[in-house]
Amino acid sequence: MTSYRLTDKDSLPRLPRGGLSSAPPRAGLQTLDDSGLVYDLGNERPFLARSTPPASLYRTAADRPASPGASGQTWRLMQEMQEQLKLYKKELEKKDDLITSLATGSKGHETPKINGYFSSGDPAYPPQPPPQPPPTGGRTLHYRMAAESVTGELAAMQVKAERLQAELGETKNRCAIKDVQIRDLETEVQSYKEDNARQVALVQTLRNRIREMDDETGTLSVVKGRGEITIQALQKEVREYQDRVAELEGRLRFKERRHVTFLTDQNFRSHINEREGAEQSSQSWERKYRDLCTEVGRCINLDTAAGSIPDVIEKVTHKINTILEENTMLRGRLSTLTEALNSSELETKASRETIMRLVSEVGREQRNLSQINTSTEQLRMDREEAIRSKEALVRENQLLRERIESSEKAWKSTRDELEHREGRVQTMDEKLRTSQYTAKAAQTQLDTFKQAIASLLSDGHHIVHEREDDIKDRIRSIMGSSRDKQAESEMLDLKVKELTKQLESQCELHQQAIRRAKKAEAHVNDFKERLSNMEGELSSSDVLRDGLRTDKQRYLEFLEKMARVMKLDEIALDVGFDLNGDALVARAQQLVHMEGDSLKDRTTHVYNLQRKVKQQKEQLESKDLHMDLLRKKIGQLEEKLQGRNELALERDDASMKIRKLQKQVERLQGQLGNARAMNTELKAKLQEVTDLKVRTLQQKDHIKEQEDELLRLRLMKEKLGKKVSNLKSEMQMTEAESEETKVLSSNTVQALSNELRSTKLALDEVARREKELVDFRQVIARMLGLEIHTLAVPNYEIIARLEKLVNAHHSHAATTLGVETALDDQFVEGYVDARRFLKTSPRSPRRARSVSPTRRYYQTQ
């Protein structure tokens, strides 16, 4: 809200403090009627009990109104101008106080007041110097300059609001960055947990392998001792890993807590405190403005209380508090859910490992029972001992888990206590702010009430020249301008709400864009992986294709060689290399038949005859084969002419050749079956011997591998021991830091308790000031003849009575010349000193404005 500053030089004369409440009663005053006139019973002359001299002292015959009808319009104009001047001056004071409170953090700049401007013989009539009104041109110039200053200050406040919104956006971005860092740390801790689980599973598999090798070699006793040693060492390593994971989780939580406290203590708290101070100061000044509007509206019988700016601000603050409480509650639920999830994951991993261990043990026992039947009882006893040791280890692990859970519960309890203390600290801060706010509100109410009474008693007489119509018209014009300004302020509030909504929508859109970007990155990574897989498959297919081409070339060369050996060159040249395989198969069949016939026929004659017959048959068969091959070639050419692809033909040819070769191989295998049957017995015996040799070699290699793994595990054990020592040192450092944080928290609690005591003292002071305000109001009401004990008298009723007193005094000024002449000496005394003090009063160094017409008038005097 725009306001103006009014210095002591520009301000109108004020009542001295305690001028009405502490003034002794006058002997001549007896009664106070409803019209506000006090009658002296000695001479029955009415006069007004006020602190200013009558207006007729400064009024000449030319200044007095000629008639009520002629001066009605000018009276209304002057009244409106007077009301507008009052409102501008008060708004100027509000604005300057708000700027100084925001800049320096003080309770507000108070306009210096002068207790007792003049010395008078009668305390009920302290006269004050009347400032002469500036000319009409000076008033318009003053109003124009005031409007320009109002627009400039409004632009400055808008820029400041935009800057605060930008700072709020920056703080939100910082919070988002810190949340991302916390998520990264959580993923790192999760990866550490997964690595620990993998190492435990690897240790278990190595343990199973060592046991199997020891059972096969027969050194069960030695392996048992080694196994116990390795089990103990691995258990220690597992414990060390668990301790390391717990320490890393503690460090992560400690860092999160420190990060949150750091943000809340430095950046976030500073911004929130500044914003709350601005809101409180704006609420106090808006309330002051609303009270002034209602009082002026009651004076002119208008209802200006339609508007609930403080209610809206209270609803907004209540909503923010509820949102903060829900946020803290959801964070607590999230932490509990993450802890439950981690515990369930650990339990599932442990159960999975036990299941795999049991499965491996069952398989090993079955193999041992099938291979070694003589040592079943001993192995069974060893197995029972191993099971007992495993149960003991499980019990020990359970005990360790229970200890870890108890320590986690203790840590949770301490964390809850710390959160409770932080909540108490926040509540104490809120109480402190509310107490400060109430103190400021009470102080501002006291000042506004005193200023309203002083303005009603002094301002109209010195500036308006005692014309009621002008004053009323001016009040109406000022009220119209105040309504316009109120409408403008409501429009600005609506704009602020719309801007906040737009900011929230922009934040939501930004979060959605971030989520979409993450999804797009995941899709891109998936596509890259698929592309790499497809490229690998393509390269493998290219390699296979090259291999098939080389195999095909070798196969064709083999067919050519076979054709030369079997004397099928001419047929191959005629038919082509596509049907070489069929021709070779047919030629091989002919040779087989020829060999069978040659073995059966023993005589040379029969052999010659059969050879001739066979030659004829071979020629006939070769011709038939040649015809068949030519037919097939013709069919293939026809198919090629019909539009078959070369790749399909090659595939068909390759499949046909493969089938023919398979048939040939099957036939040859049938011929070689008898010879293989004869050699199977000898090969079986030889195979048994070779199998035994291979087994012994494999066992030796496996034993060497296990020894190498044992050496590697020992080296890993040494490295992990060094890491454990480093982690212990880090744990000690974290414990020292936690102790320091506890000391700091205790110090903060003590400081807050001291602040609470100071706030209680401030509240007592506020109560005392409120009591003084109530006493002051009761004195004024009692002097005006109002029953404040039986009826609830509002402020506007008191102001209306004072208005009646002022109007009655103006109307009866002509009949009270004797009283005015009696007060001449009292008025002149102290007037020059007061003017000199007003001219030399201190001014605020922050203001740089042009001199108003009233101030210029005083300077010329």
UniProtKB/TrEMBL annotation:
Regions of compositional bias (Pro residues) in chain numbering: 124-136
Segments for region (Disordered): 1-32, 48-72, 103-139, 842-861
Record's protein name: CCDC170 protein
Entry keyword set: Coiled coil
Record-linked Gene3D superfamilies: 1.10.287.1490
Biased composition (Basic and acidic residues): 1-12
Organism of this sequence: Branchiostoma lanceolatum
Coiled-coil intervals, chain numbering: 147-202, 231-258, 383-410, 500-537, 620-769
